[in-house]
Write a structure and sequence with these properties.
The radius of gyration is 28 Å and the shape is globular. It is 60% helix and 6% strand. The chain contains 27 helices and 10 strands. It has 653 residues and is mainly alpha-helical. 47% of the residues are buried. The strands form 3 sheets. A 6-stranded mixed sheet has the order 1-3-2-5-7-9. Helix 2 crosses helix 9, helix 3 packs parallel to helix 14 and helix 19 crosses helix 27.
Length: 653
């Protein structure tokens, strides 16, 4: 089998990488630009399989030679980027973020970063925009795939053509079926792991092994090429970051890439793809992909006050330009240099790859040993680690009940060693109050029974959409928690705490057994069911207190605070936000979700005045940040809320 260079495939690489870069940089019109990664998978599957088939046909297949090519292709540019990124992290990141960076860097060297990011994709996960190496998940998927695929291909080449192709088709269909099944159930698993991505690489492999009959007619090939390009462009333009992906929605870009490859070189689309500037972008696409995301993320950290805010046009243009410059430099000075077999033989490549890996792992080890290079600013590290530790303890709390049934009697009791007379019933808006409430309740001789579950509004007889692993458990958890409270005669007061703004907005919606409701219908349903939940407690003779909306900043203030603090900059730039903005958010929640309980006479405990004056809502105090992330209070801030709650909830004499 002879492999002939196809410039149009390098052009297709440009079609893949440019939307990814522009989407990540903040070009809103390309909201589905992330599908470029899927186009890359198809191209990789096609080209690598071609190379393997050529080796097998010549009787020269060697797994050692295969991995030499992979190391020569992948390692030099990757390691250069990682080293520069480590230096940037030492200058720009807080100890908290730097240690997270080091963890992802070690995983990237070991081609396991997709597993790390999958394991981090939980309820309290840091925003994707704060992970400089997040994009390396796709490299890890490819390398994990290529651990198995070359050996599998060498084995099945001994079979008949039909049996070989049937097996590859079966594996591809199985992977696609798993991806479709996992889309609504295990989104992190579905996105990051190779089991649900293998079909995309196999789509290219099936083209390479000739499983798809060649198209001879020129007119038909023109149609295939236009259709393929249209599928990719449509996905780039029409998909949104919230589009369930991969799964069924990955089929158009994957099929589109396969059609473009299969249509061949002679079509009008192929000639467009062979335009020299397009081909050049394709040639630098690997390095461009490597560099663009660290450039974007570290630029955000260099301007901490803008993290989470819309990106300024000048910053968008600057990061795109810098990415292309670095990608071009990397291709010309690193990639091409190490591809020279006369300069670097097989032994040098393996030894150099091992040495580079060990050096980067040693740098990651230094970060772990020094708690994120904390020696750079010990005073800042003390404040940052305290707040980060609070979030970690909340995340790990068994009483947050990320899964499972409500706590049994005697479990998750806060405060004094007495029979609980107060129940704290809610989602993490309630759980965030537990640490300080434990201290305050003990001082007052009170005990509080905590029944909380992350992501589950304390509303009975409702489900919440879009469903995920947490929210699917909500109806059962809420029903059992409510029943446990009703069955306990010692509980005299029930404090209900939820993130009401999430239901008033569109983060998730309340629904009944029917289909997914409109926002207005979901708000009305949530209001009715919340009022009914409170009414059930009151009918049992229990007092009900509703924790009103806690002020929430428009973006995570702790990120800005810790970054500015470590850089020795004025944290005032990370200060408050307009009180009018908070008043509008609170008013919407009160008018759409809490209106039913207000009409029924349930007291709503206000907290706005604890954080806001007439003009500004604070996000930090002289002691440190008031928020652990964008929605959860630090212990200092929670203590003020708890004091007010316990004043209202204490048993009446």
């Amino acid at each position: 089998m002879t492999i002939r260079y196809r410039a149009d495939i390098d052009g297709l690489r440009a079609v893949a990488v440019v939307p990814v870069v522009l989407f990540h940089a903040g070009i809103a019109a390309l909201s589905g630009g992330y599908v470029g990664v899927d186009v890359f998978f198809v191209i990789s599957g096609y080209l690598i399989t071609q190379t393997l088939l050529a080796d097998i046909d010549r009787g020269r297949f060697s797994i050692v030679a295969f991995y030499e090519r992979r190391i020569r292709r992948i390692y030099p540019a990757l390691f250069a980027m990682l080293f520069v990124a480590f230096l940037a992290s030492a200058f720009l990141l807080s100890s908290f973020d730097q240690q997270r960076f080091a963890k992802s860097m070690a995983a990237t060297v070991l081609f396991a970063s997709n597993v790390v990011f999958f394991r981090e994709s939980g309820y309290f996960d840091a925003a994707a925009e704060l992970k400089p190496l997040l994009h390396t998940w796709s490299l890890a998927v490819e390398e994990q795939y290529y651990i198995v695929f070359p050996l599998l291909l060498a084995l099945v080449m001994r079979w008949g053509r039909g049996a070989r192709n049937a097996l590859l088709v079966a594996i591809a269909l199985g992977s696609l079926a798993l991806s479709i099944y996992a889309t609504p159930r295990w989104p992190g698993f579905n996105f990051y792991l190779p089991f649900t991505r293998a079909w995309e690489l196999l789509a290219g492999a099936l083209l390479a092994v000739g499983a798809i009959p060649a198209v001879r007619r020129a007119a038909a090939r023109e149609v295939l090429a236009v259709a393929g390009l249209a599928m990719i462009v449509a996905a780039i333009m029409l998909y949104r970051p919230g589009t369930p992906f991969p799964g069924l929605t990955a089929i158009p870009p994957v099929l589109g890439a396969a059609l473009l490859i299969h249509a061949g070189e002679g079509t009008r689309v192929a000639r467009l793809l062979t335009w020299r500037p397009v081909v050049y972008v394709g040639l630098i696409s690997y390095s461009l992909y490597l560099w663009h995301w660290p450039v974007i993320v570290f630029t955000r950290f260099a301007m901490p006050e803008s993290i989470g805010a819309p990106t300024a046009p000048a910053v968008i243009v600057g990061t795109i330009a810098a990415s292309f410059v670095l990608g071009s430099l990397s291709m010309h000075t690193v990639e091409r240099y190490f591809r020279n077999r006369d300069r670097f033989g097989r032994r040098a490549i393996f030894v150099g790859g091992a040495a580079g890996s060990l050096a980067l792992l040693a740098l990651a080890g230094l970060s772990f040993a020094t708690q994120g290079l904390a020696f750079r600013n010990p005073a800042a590290h003390a404040i940052v680690s305290r707040t980060a530790g609070e979030l970690d303890r909340l995340n790990r709390s068994p009483c947050l009940k990320l899964a499972g049934a409500p706590p049994a009697a005697g479990e998750c009791v806060l405060g004094a060693d007495v029979v609980p007379s107060i129940a704290l019933f809610g989602d993490s808006s309630g759980a965030q109050l537990a640490a300080s409430m434990d201290v305050l309740a003990k001082q007052r001789g009170l005990a509080v029974w905590q029944l909380t579950k992350a992501g589950c509004p304390p509303i009975a007889a409702a489900r919440f959409v879009p469903a995920n692993a947490l929210r699917r458990e909500c109806p059962a958890f809420v029903a059992r928690a409510q029943a446990a409270i009703l069955a306990d005669p010692a509980i005299r007061t029930v404090v209900i705490a939820g993130r009401w703004d999430a239901l008033a907005g569109d983060l998730y919606r309340a629904a009944d057994a029917g289909g997914d409701p409109t926002l207005a219908a979901a708000q009305a349903l949530a209001s009715r069911r919340l009022a009914a939940t409170a009414a059930a407690f009151r009918a049992a003779g229990k007092r009900v207190l509703m924790l009103g909306p806690i002020p929430l900043p428009p973006r995570d203030p702790f990120v800005c605070y810790r970054t500015a603090l470590f850089a020795g900059r004025d944290v005032a730039a990370c200060g408050g936000y307009p009180a009018a903005q908070e008043a509008a958010r609170r008013g919407k929640a009160m008018a759409t979700i809490l209106d039913g309980v207000v009409r029924d006479g349930v007291p709503v405990i206000a907290t706005t005045d604890l954080f806001c004056d007439l003009r500004t809502c604070r996000t930090a105090s002289a002691q440190g940040p008031l928020y652990m992330d964008d929605v959860h209070l630090t212990r200092e801030a929670a203590a003020a809320v708890d004091a007010r709650l316990l004043d209202a909830a204490a048993p009446r004499r």
